[in-house]
Amino acid sequence: MYQPDWLLDGPPDASRHLILAHGAGEGMRSGFMQAMARELGAAGLRVVRFQFPYMVETERTGKRRPPDRQAVLLDAWHQTIDHALAEGIELPRLLIGGKSLGGRMASLIADELSVAGLVCLGYPFHPPGKPDRPRIEHLQTLRTPTLICQGTRDPFGNEAEVSTYSLSPVIRFAWIEDGEHSFRPRKESGITWQGNLSVAADAVREWVAGSG
Question: Looking at the whole model, is its pTM more than 0.70?
Fold first, then answer.
């Protein structure tokens, strides 16, 4: 039985809880996940981070493992949400999402679970260098209110590429200036990574406040 391993940030009495899953290559303790959890917690959200089973094993053994099959990843999401509900978190207060792979898996179950919203931090619209292989079919009919924070030069879908997609009208974007997949800007841009993380967190806060 999969047992969610949680890390918590933000006020326990927050009006909204946001469960975040990590990306494919790094777990919930990565620099990006820790920084975003702190920023979002400071913005007033109760942030819950968890690990997919393959990352639990990677950290336990010290040996890198590829991501689990999609069915396993989705089952981990379902069990994590079941655990959250058992802890007293109510669906009308619950948002889900994550970094890259984690956010993509959350987007596949958001409508089914009727959560309050979906937050994707760097969505993998296509494999790097392969814009002819978009992963957007389910995003065209998505019903859950959604915010995607995306770097303007993300190799998994930059602003110019994503602007050509026909996506559900419930999806909103916060474009992170000069950011790549983890929102890091180029040094010559004059923008800082910390600044971009704060921009993303502020966008999430404002979107949550506006969505009621």
Answer: yes
